[in-house]
Design brief:
Elements: E1 4-6, H1 11-19, E2 28-34, E3 37-42, E4 47-49, H2 50-56, H3 60-79, E5 84-85, E6 94-97, E7 102-104, E8 111-112, H4 116-130, H5 137-144, H6 151-167, H7 177-194, H8 202-207, H9 209-231, H10 248-277
Antiparallel strand pairs: 1-3, 2-3, 4-6, 5-8, 6-7
Helix pairs in contact: 3-4, 3-6, 4-5, 7-9, 9-10
């Protein structure tokens, strides 16, 4: 019956997890102790391990999303009474389901304990593995050197880093000259287009200064929204269909859908203003 056999284990952990419904943990459907061994039957997961995704190469946006889900699960485990310490966070034991849910498989290092720093150190090493381009090196070192003592502190610092990442303007985040030149040209063209007339509403732009200001504001807003959709600048469009899907073709479809929605809304607003101001 078992799909996992453990020689070292804390029976209290598996007893607790089998009765709890924690979305971020691979559910324990049954377990049994026989002659000092623990035989565990886990739920069947349709998906791939985080290690497989990292080997294939996934976007920074997805890695941040997966890390955020892992941290939320760890926080739930540490709020349990007694706290459940996983003791290990290997990408090969973290599963990504077919609908992009993150589930951690509990191993022999897990135990009921109060030493949160053990898991926090594991998070530090996982950060270095998931972000090899050093995006979260500062946070990783804080975790490894025990500068952060609770999961709440880790999550707070992680969210702060994500917010700062969101402020960085697309095209300038990589600090590559070629990217910055292309981004600079695009932004100049966008700003220039905001101050030029439009053939459809040319007469309105000339005769209605209020419409002119609103038109330019909407034009700029829609352009920024499209840049956001294409570059995952912020998390505003994450809830749109397929925007966070692990399948690159579905992500592209999600971006196209989001861009069409933005353009349709912009046109409808302009048509409404046209009728109001005439």
């Amino acid at each position: 019956m078992a799909n996992k056999t453990l020689e070292k284990y804390d029976i209290h952990v598996f007893s607790s997890l089998s009765s709890l419904n924690i979305p971020g943990i691979v559910a324990i459907e049954n377990y049994r102790e026989i002659d000092g061994m623990l035989y565990v039957l886990e739920e069947t997961i349709e998906g791939n391990t985080l290690q497989e995704y990292l080997n294939e190469g996934i976007s920074l946006k997805l890695r941040k999303y997966f890390m955020n889900e892992i941290l939320k699960t760890m926080q739930i485990l540490h709020h349990n009474s007694p706290k459940i310490i996983l003791g290990s966070l290997e990408p090969a034991s973290i599963w990504i389901t077919s609908n992009d849910k993150v589930k951690i498989s509990v191993g022999e290092q897990a135990r009921a304990d109060n030493e949160e720093w053990i898991d926090i150190q594991c998070i530090g090493y996982l950060l270095k593995t998931m972000f090899p381009n050093h995006e979260y090196d500062a946070l990783a070192m804080q975790c490894i050197h025990k500068e952060l003592t609770t999961m709440e502190e880790v999550i707070s610092v992680f969210k702060h880093h994500r917010m700062i990442d969101g402020i960085n303007i697309p095209g300038f985040r990589s600090k590559k000259l070629s990217h910055m030149i292309i981004a600079g040209i695009v932004y100049v063209l966008i700003i220039a287009s905001c101050f030029s007339g439009d053939v459809i509403w040319d007469d309105m732009i000339i005769t209605q200064p209020v419409f002119t200001a609103l038109y330019r504001l909407l034009h700029l807003t829609s352009c920024i929204a499209i840049i956001d959709i294409c570059t995952h600048w912020t998390s505003l469009f994450d809830e749109f269909p397929y925007m966070s899907d692990t399948n690159p073709y579905k992500r592209m479809l999600g971006r196209c859908i989001a861009i069409i929605i933005v353009l349709v809304i912009t046109v409808f607003i302009l048509m409404g203003l046209d009728k109001i101001l005439l």
